[in-house]
Amino acid sequence: MNKIYANAEEAIKDIEDGAVLMLGGFGLCGIPENCITALVKKGTKNLTCISNNAGVDDFGIGLMLQTRQVKKMISSYVGENAEFERQLLSGELEVELIPQGTLATRCLAAGYGMPAIFTPAGVGTEVAIGKETRNFNGKDYLMEYAFDADFALVKAWKGDAAGNLIFKDTARNFNPLMAMAGKITIAEVEELVPSGELDPNFIHTPGIYIHRIFQGSGYEKRIEQKTVRKRL
Amino acid sequence: MNKIYANAEEAIKDIEDGAVLMLGGFGLCGIPENCITALVKKGTKNLTCISNNAGVDDFGIGLMLQTRQVKKMISSYVGENAEFERQLLSGELEVELIPQGTLATRCLAAGYGMPAIFTPAGVGTEVAIGKETRNFNGKDYLMEYAFDADFALVKAWKGDAAGNLIFKDTARNFNPLMAMAGKITIAEVEELVPSGELDPNFIHTPGIYIHRIFQGSGYEKRIEQKTVRKRL
Amino acid sequence: MLDKNGIAKRIAKEIKDGYYVNLGIGIPTLCANYIPDGINVVLQSENGLLGMGPFPLEGEESPDLINAGKQTVTMLPGSSIFDSAMSFGMIRAQKVHLTILGAMEVSENGDIANWKIPGKMVKGMGGAMDLVASAKNIIVAMQHVNREGESKLLPQCELPLTGIRCVKKIVTELAVLDVLPNGGGFKLLERAPGVSVAEIIAKTKGKLVVDGDVPEMEI
Amino acid sequence: MLDKNGIAKRIAKEIKDGYYVNLGIGIPTLCANYIPDGINVVLQSENGLLGMGPFPLEGEESPDLINAGKQTVTMLPGSSIFDSAMSFGMIRAQKVHLTILGAMEVSENGDIANWKIPGKMVKGMGGAMDLVASAKNIIVAMQHVNREGESKLLPQCELPLTGIRCVKKIVTELAVLDVLPNGGGFKLLERAPGVSVAEIIAKTKGKLVVDGDVPEMEI
To answer: What does pTM read for this prediction?
Structure first.
């Protein structure tokens, strides 16, 4: 049973047109750069992408928008992308906006085998339309369903041959959640090590959730908003 | 804002008769030994204890059973304790047995602000009696409620002044879940370090969930079933 | 009348020792600069960070360490990193004591609208709906009137809602106001320096409760 | 007729390369000793461990490292530790491919009873109800008859249930049987060495399907 793939092209080879994908990352932080590049090269079309954001015009999921590979985005915030806006207004792209915590928890639900969860987010707003509302202890909650994604594409800092993953700083974000939620989960890592090199106490995603893993390359890790203090 | 307490006696001082407690641990592994000893010394009565197990006759929660401090146990498995059995059969002790995954997930629900969760565990059994059953995608689930505990008593390997916790090996078990679930959470640690000494990437329980922390002492860490291989 | 930093400074007075606080984008972010001395406050960033510190020194920024506004940040001693489910878990469980965020409109019963303007490109609600639906204590930092000079404190929100009956306090360039329970309206607590009660009344479209003398705020 | 190790050995043949497997207490635990060479199997222990290894060498046991049976164990390279919510999360999400556990009774539609005997002290279900309600593939390891000589393969369970319509396969000292879907009964697949079909028929109270020649098992 070997989970190690040579590269992104091999790992994503069987992602077909029309697939439902999850892509980890928050903004451009912790996104599966290699998988996105490989999907652009492969040209897979009509994708549904579950991702907190949609990248920027020339990076991240924005690259797949440029090539019109995305049919639908399910996101919480999509504000940094002119091509996205153009496709949305022209009706080429379908968008479902959902609260960020709902997005995260629907991933958790999938990874934990819970068919639905309750959250107060969106009660009394247009997000609640068509959803079951339920009162617990005097407070209203919406029932939201677990995601059902064909593939999850995640990016980790380190990974081992058993599929165990470790994330760095806030590049963790949605990655471990989506890693648990995909029917098939593909992990790209900055550093792939043999089994036994990672401390079992400090694994963020146990290998049981990971089906394919590969050593990524050429990471750009673009910073979206560089904010710094002046050195005195 | 100081979370550090001198010892278990100080940390549990305001636990009153009739309180609902969560106690971390699996068997005797990772139990809050110092807090239990302090509770026995304080003599707090009529406690409801949510804990996966009930200790053994002369260790763990068993010590609080000897002193008749426990009114009710909510557990998944209570089989290693003769005094427990005696009190149960005599009607002195009330016991609610729930599936282990349900126990864990009801803690998670409390810590994550989810009023209820769905699990298939117990469908079609006596555990389902009186509970709402709901079908999702052709499979039945029980709706189970988040726990509501006054105090959670947990034991960690290391902790810092900010309340961040790290657990060792399978002594993790229910501890991080109960840590999130208590209205007031008290953590005892084998090693208390200043803030900044623990790597933020490898914190199991963020300090926001911990209200009180103290350096434990005199850990016995009893092994319940020593099983070994012979050296050849 | 207060400038943005003045609003942030006044709100910062509401932050108590031991609070875990989530700051929204814009004026709320500025509050971090005015946290009173001698109190210990931990900033939560909903992308998965507790113990957020100031922006990094030039050259020390990391693409792996950003806040929810996607800005490069730092971590203070005692920080912790977690995934987005735990982040919103602790928000829903009300472990975060105070949420400070901006708004386009607030209604007299505490409804808030801050994510969508019909006819304009919708960027999304991000974590705002989770935060306002969960937080026990929500303070809104905003201008009292919009660019057209219309009051943003209304009987009912006209824009699509972000959350209902959730805002507890509002600080604008003109005033500090509590949102009274059960639709009781906006209670005027303090005037900004040099601002008259008459001006606040004129610029507040929702029900305004003015009870006795209204002191000028101290900042 | 098989002894306990024989039952474990036969069940171990069902374990495939790449499987994540949860082994119950008793005979199931013995299966770990018979996993076929050359295949890679990861054992899950529901108290929060993937990659469970053999018992430790004398003197190397740790109170912080036990399995769900509370026995001291070891970790193999590639192991990971997690909390109980994630442990049952991966079980519910069917990431664990195979669960092997003991039973007091199994019914012809796959119901299982293994946690409670009326009138006796009840110890609790532990993780058994979660495991049987969640696992895609459940193999029961048990004796064909109880101490009173009564069949444990029944039309309906008489003891309180642990789970319903969940058992896929049963291995006893006498036979290997599949549980047919939709209450189709127990299908006899293999006889233990030296055991006749007649004996299996005699000791099976639930509906037994015997279809053509029944081969003797190879172990």
So the answer is: 0.97
Dist. CA D219–CA D216, nearest whole Å = 10
pLDDT along chain C (219 residues), means of 10: 96 97 94 93 98 96 97 97 98 98 97 93 94 97 96 98 98 98 96 97 98 92
- The three-class DSSP label of residue A38 is helix
* Cβ-Cβ contacts under 8 Å, A161 against chain D: 78
- The pLDDT, as a whole number, for residue B1 is 78
Q: D46 catalytic, yes or no?
A: yes
Domain ranges (residues) in chain A: 8-115+146-215
CATH of domain A8-115+146-215: 3.40.1080.10
List, in sequence order, every residue forming a beta bridge with B166; answer none if it has no partner.
Answer: B158
- The 3-state DSSP class for residue C63 equals coil
Average the pLDDT over D73-82 and give the result. 98
**C4-38+94-209 has which CATH code?**
3.40.1080.10
Q: Are B43 and B68 in contact (CB under 8 A)?
A: no
pLDDT at position A231: 84
ipTM: 0.97
Q: What are the Cα distances from residue B21, in Å, to A4, B50, B155, B207, D84? A: 45, 6, 14, 20, 18
Residue-wise pLDDT tens digits, B16-27: 999 999 999 999
| CA-to-CA dists, residue A158 to A10, A38, A203, B120, C31, angstroms | 19, 20, 10, 34, 36
**Cβ atoms of A39 and A64 closer than 8 Å:** yes
Residues A88, C121: C-beta atoms closer than 8 Å: yes
φ and ψ of C91, to 5 deg: -70, -50
Burial D201-210 (b: 16+ CB within 10 A, else e): eebbbbbbee
Nearest chain A residue to C64 by CA distance is A171
Distance CA D90, CA D75 (A): 19
User: B 133-192 residues with CB below 8 A of D?
Assistant: 157, 167-177
Res B232 pLDDT > 80:
no
